[in-house]
Amino acid sequence: MRLFLILSLLVFNVEAKVKTEVATLAGGCFWGMEEIIREIPGVISTQVGYTGGKSKNATYIEVKTGQTGHAESVKIEFDPTKLSYETLLEWFFRMHNPTTKNQQGNDIGSQYRSAIFYNSETQRAVAQKIIERVDKSGVWKKPIVTEVVPATDWWDAEDYHQDYLKKNPGGYTCHFVRDVKF
Q1: Domain residue limits, the chain
Q2: Over the stretch 160-174, which tens digit does the pLDDT of each residue have?
Q3: Residues carrying an active site annotation
C-alpha cells in the first residue's frame, strides 16, 4: 500500500507539471509590451532582451544605436492549455502598430521594429495565418510589415529594464490594447 501511494504521488507530480511554450515578440519599446503581456491569462513569465541581430552579448548601449540589428523584444513563457499561440499573437497585433516599419510612437529605429521570432515551424505557420487574417480584417489601413523570422540568440536586457513599468509606474510607453477583432 505504501509503495502504491508513493508511486501515485510520483505520477501525479509528473502529470501536474505544465508543458510550457516560449514566444519571442518585438513591437517597439519592450517596456510597454512586457507590461501588457504579463497580464494576459496563461502567461507564466516575461523577460525583456535583445534578439535578431549580429553582435554577441548585446547591451542596451549598443542596441539603442540601431547598428546591431537587434530588436527590443519580449520572451514569453506561456501555458498553451490556457493561452494558445494564436491568441497571444492576436494580443500582439492589438497592442502595437504593425504597419510602421522600424517605429512605434516616438521610438524610431530598427531596434523598434515589429517582428515575430518563431521557435518552430508550427509557430511560423500560425504567425503567417494571423498576419493574413489581420491584414484582411481592415483594422489597420496599411499593410502589415511585421517580420516573421527564426528565433536567434537571445541576450537578456539589463536588470533595470526588467519589469520596468512595474518598478516605475507612469513611465513612458506607447503601447495600449486596441478594442478590435480580427
Answers
A1: 20-167
A2: 999 999 999 888 898
A3: 29
